Structures are given as structure tokens and as C-alpha cells.
Amino acid sequence: MNLNYPITYINGISANRAALLFSELGIKTCNDLLNFFPFRYIDKTQFYKIKDLKPNSSEVQIVGKITSIKSVAQKRGSRLVAKLQDSSGTVELVWFKGQKWIKDSLKINEPYVAYGKLNYYNGSFSMPHPELELATAYEKKLQTKMQPVYPSTEKLTNVGVSNKLIRTYIQNLLQQFYDGIQENLSLKIIDDFKLMHKRDALLNIHFPKNQENLTKAEYRLKFEELFFIQLQLVRKKLINKTKIKGFVFEKVGALFNDFYKDKLPFDLTNAQKRVLKEVRKDVASGAHMNRLLQGDVGSGKTIVALLTMLLALDNNFQATIMAPTEILANQHFVSVSELVDGLNIKVAILTGSVKTKKRREIHEGLEDGSLHILIGTHALLEDKVKFKNLGIAIIDEQHRFGVKQRAKLWSKNKLPPHILVMTATPIPRTLAMSVYGDLDISVIDELPPGRKQVKTVHRFDSNRLSVFKFMKDQIAQGRQIYVVYPLIQESEAMDYKDLMDGYESISREFLSPNYQISIVHGKMKPADKEFEMQRFVKGETQIMVATTVIEVGVNVPNASVMVIESSERFGLSQLHQLRGRVGRGADQSYCILLSSFKLSAEAKTRLKTMVETTDGFKIAEVDLKLRGPGNIMGTQQSGVLNLKIADVVKDSQILVNARNTAIEVLQEDPNLSKVENVPISQAFVKMSKSSKIWSNIS
Ligand code: ADP
Ligand code: MG
User: Fold this and answer.
1) Which pLDDT value is given to residue 630?
2) Which residues contact 291 (CB under 8 A, 6 or more apart)?
3) Which of 274, 292, 303, 332 to mutate to test the pocket of ligand 1 (most atoms within 8 A of CB)?
């Protein structure tokens, strides 16, 4: 007997039933059924005192005496109400159906056990249509177990496959196969975390003796689930490290040192120094670097990228930065060019709008090695772009690139260049462990000194006039202002109309020649966009009206006010990104969230969060709670999040333990060949065969 047998081997399951269980619930083997977990339990192991009942209790069991019974007239017909009293209080038992029969059979002043769902109204509890049994009868068949309730479908219920029947199947299964359930963790892990053994965990997840056993069973199964995922991720990372050779940047040379000594415009923050150290260790190790750099907007990722590129150049390699938009690529190009001015480094930019002649020059420079740093957009990925010796590829704002595109960067060399992925959308640590569990992660968790926190307020549309006045005051003080409109594909036409209407109303309020206004949106030609951007960058215009094209990367330190129109329509991470466009200079900056009066509960939470904090990681945590892990940027395609029992948000502590344990195990026994790890390795081999989590990760 073995758990891979089809469920027809279980007593009582016919071929017909088996076919139905497969088509309705995907259950085919005994193992499938064993791992089909209840979603809740009926707890008849506990009795509640009436005074301890809580308004939000679900089903409860009470023992008490019926002190009175009466019919109460109501709009249509009547209801039967009995008072059940214990030593601590009274609840009402209520029936709408079968009243006569019940009334005749109830015995006054005899102890009963009542079980059912509680309603709470006007300070008192009632229990409609309770399961009711004389305490003497109840005691004879004393219930000591919690009853599992399984997910089901209408079709199953209709043909009589009730919850009770499924319970029987699983009971039979456990009776027949219990001895065949194998432990898949090592004794050491079981000891370290005081885990329930696998057999007991499965027994108790289906038929828990009590709440305590259930909690232990759940913990064990969650741990196991997360552990095996982490084991795969960590192992993949180790294989990358040992099997995939990387270029070695042996020396820290003249470029890096000269720049660091003479050209660095500021002292690095401790966080920047730490990250740089992590990167330097990677690129000198001989292994291939695959590192994710998380840092809030404005935390100073660019300088880390530049210093990393200088390391590559010092070792006669080329370097590239890929950005998601032309505006951002341009911005990188300008700031990198300025920073390395005088260092005899050749930098070029390649985007869709670079002319053929210039393009050819770039191609040649890349191939003969005379061009050192290339900055660009997706245009970098074209087949014609070939490097002589690409040592490192830096990808900015990674969530906008797909995995395929990253893979394409790899193929540009004999050996894969080192990869540094920079993102300003912080992913909560525990989520990152799952989704990016096979990457190394660095975090810049400190802003450069002297930054003033952006002051954020929420205003309703009806206060627009006072917002306009505030804008005028700020402009009078020499500041510049962004006004941003949402642009969503599904409502694109309407959104463009809103943008244009808004632009007009601002133009009426902020009249030329005193005020100059730029407008930038996705329907403009790149050249026009660039022209308008430049006017704003140079300070020729005071107001920039835009859609979210300015979301990423734009750096205008003198812009100190961000007005976000219809802010209730933006997601949290987008709002946070937008706010990051201001607060880059020395002046106090402001973010004004405009919204209509009607707000959903979720929108309220988003706006409130924005007003309360500027910490990107906190915002990411709230976002994760609001939307669930599957909807966070960059995680959508990840199979890592299809969990059976664990929850990356709620079980984050178990996740951390599971990951650390996986790391420990693999450090001591990379091939899982030690005797004590045999249970792990057997389970691991089986899982790797069936699991698809690999293919979706970089
Ligand atoms: P982001 O992480 O959003 O890409 P940037 O690299 O654009 O941030 O840096 C934001 C601003 O902070 C830039 O103007 C940059 O010159 C400045 N900056 C970066 N690091 C420091 C530092 N250590 N001290 C002072 N200013 C810094
Ligand atoms: Mg940046």
C-alpha cells in the first residue's frame, strides 16, 4: 500500500465517486486526499459560559436549563423563543420552523446541551435553530473531537457527497494508510522547533483532539510547506553561485579610487557603504552576481550603481544601465555624464529615438570597446547591440521588466555579466524571501542626511481653491510644482479628458506671462515630451501637468510640491513613487492628495497611510495586507505564492524560521547526502519533479 495509489483503494470509494472527486476537487491519489485540508472545524470539545460569549463568536456549545418557552408574534407568523440559562447568564434559543413539534418536546428545567451559531443584537445573544440534546443523552456519546469541515462544491453536495462522507473517506484513508505516512523532515529540525511528527500532524489536521493539537499540526504543516520552497530557492541560489562562473573584478583601480577621493559630491551614507561592500565582495568572488538592490525613492541608488560600474571599468569591462523609460534613461545619462566628467570615460545613451547614424557609432564603440558605459531603454536588448566585454548590467526599476528581458541581457556575452537589479518599490522582507529567494538582496534603509520629510495632506476636491492658493505661495517662493493625473488603460479616453480639463482649469488660474506651464503625457511624441520636460528641468516653467509618465526617476530638486488628482484611484506603491519626486532639494516639500468625497474603505486606508508615513517599507506592508501577496508588483507570475496552508503575510515568522533552517541544512550538507537528511532529500526529489516554481523566477 502506498500513498500514490488512486483513491479507489480506500474503503468505500467507488470508481464513480473517485472520478467525481477528481473532476470537482482535483483529488486523484490517496496523497491528494490526505492533503485536502479542512477550512474550518466544528468545536464540540469546549463548553462556553454565557458571560464569556463574544459578539463575534461563531459556533459555540453551551450547557444550561430551559427556563421558559413562548411563541412571539411577528410580522409574518410567529417564532418560538426558549430561554437557556446557565450559572452565568441567559441566551435565547429561537425557532421559526417546526415550532409546534419543538415546543411539545422541550423539557423545562432539564439540563440541555445547545450548539449553534450565535447572533448578537441589542446587547443580547440568540441562537437560531440550535442543535439541542438533553445533557444525559449527550454524555452517553461524549464528543471529544473537533469535526473538520471541508471545502466542497454544489455538484458534490447534490449527489450526496456530503461533508460527513468526505470525513468518512479520510477516516478510512488514515486507518488504512497511517503507517505508510513518512516523515520528511530530519529529527534535528523536528527537535529544534518542537514540531509534531508528520503522521500526527496529518491526523490532527483532519481530526484534532483539541485546539492545542490543531495549532501544533498547523504549525508543523506550514513550516514544512515553507521549508521545502525555501530549500528549492536557496539551493538554486547556491547552484548559481558555484556552477555559474562570473567575471572577477580583481582590483579596485584608478577610476574608482580617483572618483571616490576627488569627485564624490557627498559622503556616502552608511547604508550606501554597506551595499557597496556587499557588491564588491560579490564581483571579486569569481561567482556570478545576481543581486537585488532595494532602496526607497531618493535613497541614493544611482551613486552605488555608478561606483559599481567604475569597478567594472577598472578591470577593463564595459557596463550598462537599463531603464524603463526614455525620460529616466536620459536622466541617468545626464547625471552619470556629469559625475564622471574629466575621468576619460566614454558614456552614450541608446533609446528608441536615437538616429541611425548615431546608433551605428554606438554599435561600433561597443564592439571595439571604446565605449565604456551604455545607458538606455529596451533598445539595449536589440540583437544588433553587442558588447566587446560587458562586465555588469544594472537594471533600474526592475518591476517593469519581464524575466525574459533579463535573460536576454545575459545572452549578450560569453559569460553572463553581473546583474544588479535596482528597485524603489520596496517589497516586504518576507515576501522578498519567497519571490526573490534565489537572489541576494541588499537594502539601502537610510536616506541621505538633511532630507526634510515630505509633508502630506489629504484634501477633498471641494477645497481646490485653497490648494491653488497654496501653489501660488510656493511658486512665489521660487518653487516648482507637479500636478499628476491618473491614466488607466481601461478608462484611457476619460482619463485623457480629465487631464486636458485639468490643464485648462490650471491655465485659467495660473495665467501667462506670470506663470508658465508644461504638460507631458504618453500620447506626445518623444521629442515634444523631452522639450516640455526640459523646460521644467531648467526652471522655465513652474508647473508640470502630467500623467504618471513622471512616476519613475525624474529628478528636479527645486520641485517641492506634488499635487495628485483623483488620488483615490492610485495604488499605494504608485502614490509613494509619485511623492518621491519631491523632497529632493533643501526646501520643505509637500504632497497634496486630492480626492472626491466618496471613498471606499480601502481607498481611505491608502490615503491615511500616505498621510501618516513616508517609510516605503511600512507602505509596502500595508499594501501587502490590502491587496494580498499575489498583487504586489513583480510577484504576479511567481508560483512561489501558491501555498496550500501557509500564508506569507500571516505566517511571516514561520517563513523566516523555515528559510534560515533551509540555509543551515544546505550549508552543512549541500547535496543532502547525510544520513540524517535522507527524509528531506527523498521528499525534495519528489517535489522538485512535480513543482514548477523554478521557471518563473529570474
Ligand atoms: P534613487 O535611489 O531614488 O535613485 P538617487 O540616486 O536619484 O535616488 O538620489 C537622490 C538624490 O540624493 C540625488 O540628488 C543624489 O545626488 C542625492 N544623494 C545620493 N546619495 C547621497 C548622499 N550620501 N548624501 C547626499 N546626497 C545624496
Ligand atoms: Mg533612481
Assistant:
1) 62
2) 278, 279, 282, 418, 419, 420, 421, 439, 440, 441, 442
3) 303
The domain of 341 spans 254-285+300-423
Instruction: Determine the Cα–Cα distance for residues 429 and 427; give it in Å rounded to an integer.
Output: 6
* CATH number (domain holding residue 366): 3.40.50.300
The verdict on 417 and 467 lying in the same domain is no
* 555 and 595 assigned to the same domain: yes
Q: What is the CATH number of the domain that holds 136?
A: 2.40.50.140
Beta bridge partners of 85: 65, 90
* Arithmetic mean of pLDDT, 264-271: 95
- Please identify, among 423, 441, 471, the residue that sits at the C-terminal boundary of a domain: 423
Q: How far, in Å, from the CA of 160 to the mean position of ligand 2?
A: 60
Confidence class for position 141, pLDDT limits 50, 70, 90: low
User: Which range among 328-337, 413-422, 504-513, 639-648 shows the weakest confidence by mean pLDDT?
Assistant: 639-648
Query: Relative to the alpha carbon of 580, which ligand is closest?
Result: 1
Q: Are residues 484 and 337 in the same domain?
A: no
Residue showing cell 520636460: 533
Whether pLDDT at 635 is above 70? no
Nearest C-alpha neighbor of 288 from the set 216, 392, 399: 392
Higher pLDDT, 211 or 549: 211
Best residue among 302, 332, 550 to mutate for probing ligand 1, ranked by most atoms within 8 Å of CB: 302
* Same domain? 419 vs 461: no
Cβ distance 423 to 292 under 8 Å? Answer: yes
